[in-house]
Amino acid sequence: MLFSRALTAGMRTHCPDALNGAAAYTPEELGGDGQPIEAVQVAEVQPAPPAETGPDAELLAQAYAACGDAGLSDDGLIALVAEISKGKAETLDQLPVATLQKLVKHGVSAETVARCNGDEADDDADDLPAAWAA
User: Where are the domains of the chain?
Assistant: First the structure.
């Protein structure tokens, strides 16, 4: 028994490739009764769907520039993103690429800037330009 344990210990230490990743233990070593182990059912793993890629850095920079040029404050930008996405996004990079392209192309109106910055008393969220409808 000692000789066979020395052989398995030597194989695990000096030539593990000879075992092809199999355990070098017998059921008796592990306290088993020598009976064959029942087959283990293996579940198939489905690959995760590819993640959607976000906007490229250039488009994102242009969108931030359009908002800054229009006079949106940081809080106003957060309010604008929440308004455009109906509360589903918090930052520009979470918006769809098509929406960012519209933002860059059309800019932000003075009325929207005033509303999002909190300069107007009327906070009606239904005043988005038709070009922004996603």
Answer: 1-33, 57-132
d(CA 74, CA 67): 10
Q: In which residue are the tokens 């930008």 written?
A: 77
Residue 131 pLDDT > 60 = no
Alpha-carbon distances, residue 111 vs 46, 58, 71, 118 (angstroms): 49, 26, 11, 11
Is residue 42 within 8 Å of residue 59, measured between CB atoms?
A: no
Return the closest-CA partner of residue 66 out of 87, 52, 84.
84
Q: What is the pTM of this model?
A: 0.49
Handedness of CA 9, 10, 11, 12 (dihedral sign): positive
